Structure formats: structure tokens, C-alpha cells
Amino acid sequence: MRQIVIDPVTRLEGHLKVMVTVDKGVVCDAQIAGTLYRGFETILAGRDPRDAVFLTQRICGVCPADHATAAALALDVACEIEVPANGRLLRNIILGANYLQSHITHFYHLSLADYVVLPETAPFIPHYRGDFRLNQAATDKLGSHYFTALAIRRKCHELIAHFAGKMPHQAAIVAGGTSRNASPERIQAAKSLLEEIAAFINNEYEEDVRLLARAYDDYFSMGKGCGNLLTYGAFPLNDASTEMLFNSGIFLNGQVEKMDPALITEDVSHAWYAAGSEGSPDAVHTVADPAKSGAYSFVKAPRYGNAVCEVGPLARMWLSGIYTNGISAMDRIVARMLEAKVMTRSLERWLREVNPENACEAEVHIPWEANGVGMTEAARGALGHWVKINRGKIERYEAVVPTTWNASPRDKNGRMGAIESALIGLPVPDEANPLSVVRTIHSFDPCLACAVHLITPDKPLGQFIV
Ligand code: NFE
Fold first, then answer.
1. Residue 136 sits in which domain range?
2. In this structure, is residue 462 part of a structural domain?
């Protein structure tokens, strides 16, 4: 038996450490750890509730529109606001375009080097050796798409910036809708960018994923994990949010069921948090305890009832009935590409539906006391923000993010998190090149910046001044 430690795992966002035990060439035990503390909830306490939309975006530069959406939805509920049609559509467009940049970034810039030998120069060296299966022509083609993809993901940011001023950390999504309306010029500019982005996705991205899936088809039976898939639902198609592009739901023990938000809890048995940091997200009071014995991660362990769940594009495609081929490392890559295709068509529709004559923002009155929950789908999966307002200020805030679900540590029942369990049984024929381990971790597209809750253990948190 040997232990392999990769710390940090590169080509993902944030700080993730993996420890796997390999016995006779197969992974028999695994631990995933988030090694930095986030602390945004602490920053938000005592602030104007409207700040949540802007401050939570700084959790992460990859999915700021996603956090803005969850925060705005939570405030819509707390302030009892009905968002006008343009606000809904523009929020969809901003979040949807961010999915596209995120999925393209994942495949080409975070995952591809696991399967293809990119140019033997910085930043692609050093790289693992061994199981690389594509011939030179295919390798050159995918290698050149790595660079095309950089230009395309920039166009996704430009598309968002037409409606939201800038990206990352867009400036339009607010409680009540969006602070900037569409104009015929902006819609036209976005349509023309979307045409280029969609052409890349429908041609190069799809073909490249299918090429990889054929060459590495054994990865359709590797990295399954817990087998449960959870989605909160996202992208309202009408103003009442009764029709959604992605429905909420759960695939639990082989059955599709309705998702009940009341069953979501956070467990901290093996996470560096003190007692009181666990339970329902609308009641937890998160306090870090870096000296806690038996803990090994700053990532909490969200659970649905007692169940461990995987979240992400595969969960959305599965529960929307678009892709139910299987749950594996390669299925996650295929589902993410299929979702990008669905999203380009949805963006075309929303850009047609936006009417610059209509309102995009409702007036917001901050209540003296209220609670709100904003549940949506970030690019990496189910995202929820829980806010409690007291005396017109944020009293408590809790964000439960996709990678907290996927990269969770063990819980009080000793159940492994989704990524941990996906590593069990992987073949590792060469311990110096644990390619199956990094391929499986990357298939979840983890973002540890989002998942963990500034590390200055001997200093107090500074004041955030805007
Ligand atoms: Ni930092 Fe994020 C997304 C959120 S986390 S990338 O998508 O929310 O898993």
C-alpha cells in the first residue's frame, strides 16, 4: 500500500489537496481537502443587504455572475419583489453566457492537458507521462483549439459586458432585476458575438469532446462516485418562474424525485469548523476551528437528508432528460459540452425576447426583518445563498456552493464526499503519474475558491471598505 499526495492539484480554481491510498495498483481510500478558509459570510454580517450581490461575487472570478444571481434571488424573496421580464431575461443572458465561458475554460484550459500532450513549453511543462492516446494530427488539432478557445471565452466575457458593464464581477444583476436595460445596439452586438461563440461550440468543442470520448472510452466506466445527482433548477422561462430551463430535482438511489430544500444540511464532523457551524443553512453560525481533531478540510459536507450528492452539468442534463448515458468521468465532460449547446440556443431565444421598451428593475425596499433564500444553478452545480436581515442589515449569511457538495469531506456517518468516492477503484498503474486520479477530479471542474468558507489565523479579519 502506498499513499499518493497531490498538493495542490493544479488546473482547477483554488487550493485542493488529494491523498489517495493505492493497493495493488487500485485506489482503495481517498481524502480531498480544501486548504484555505473563505470567510465571506463574516464580511457580510452587519452590512446593507444590497451589498451581498457585489461582495459575494468576489468569492470567485470564474462564477461571479452565478453568486450575483443567487444573492439577488435571495434578496428578491426577502424584499418580496417581483422581477420584471427584462430583469429576468437579462439575468438569464448574463448567467448563461458565463456558463459558456466556464465550460469552454474547463474543457480546453483545465482538462485537455490530462488527455493530450500540449506543446512542450511553459506553461505546459512539466506534465504527467504515460497514457496519452491521440495521434499527432489529433494532438495538433486540439492543441491549436486550446488557443482559439482563449479568444472565444473572451468573447463570452464581452457579451456579458454589453449588458453588465464588465466581466468578471459583472455590475448589472441587482436585487429587483438588472440595473442596466438592453438597447437595440447592445442586443445586436451580443447576437453577433453569440454567433461566433455558438459556431465554435457546435463545431470544434463538440467534435473535440467526441474525439476524446472515443479515444478514452474506458473513462465512461470510471469515476462514478456516489451515484446521486442533485439540481436546484435555474433559468426561469416565465416571470412566475413556474417554467424553468433546468428543473429542480434529485436522482436518488436510482429514482428521480422532487427536491425538498428543507432536507439540505451542512455537516462539519470532518471539517475545520466549531460546533454550531452545522445544520440547516438558514440557521448555521459558521466559526472556523483550524485545530479541530479529526478534521481535514475547510470544505463543509452538505447532505440531502443523509445522502451524498453530486451536482453539476451532468445532474442538470440528467434531470432535464437530455443526457442519461451514465455517471462517470467522461459522462461529465460530454454533459458539460451538451449543456453548452443547449445554452447557446437559449441565449438566442432570450436575446430575441428582450424588449428594450420594457422595465428591467423593480423598486427595492429593504425590510426591517426578513429571511430570503436564493437557489440557482452555477456552472458547476447547485448554488444556494441564505440571508437573514435584522434591523435592515445582514445578520447572517450562508452560501452553499457546488464544489462544497462535490468536494465535501466525510460526514458524521463516515460517508465520503462525491469526489472522494469517485476516486475509489481507479486503476493507478504508475504511481508517479496518477493520471486517472487527476482526470476524475477535473471531471467535476472543482472550484475550491468557491467551496471553502484569507488565512491569517493569528490576526483578526480586516474591515472591507467600499
Ligand atoms: Ni468558483 Fe462556482 C461555480 C459557484 S463553485 S466556480 O460554478 O457557485 O463550485
1. 2-451
2. no
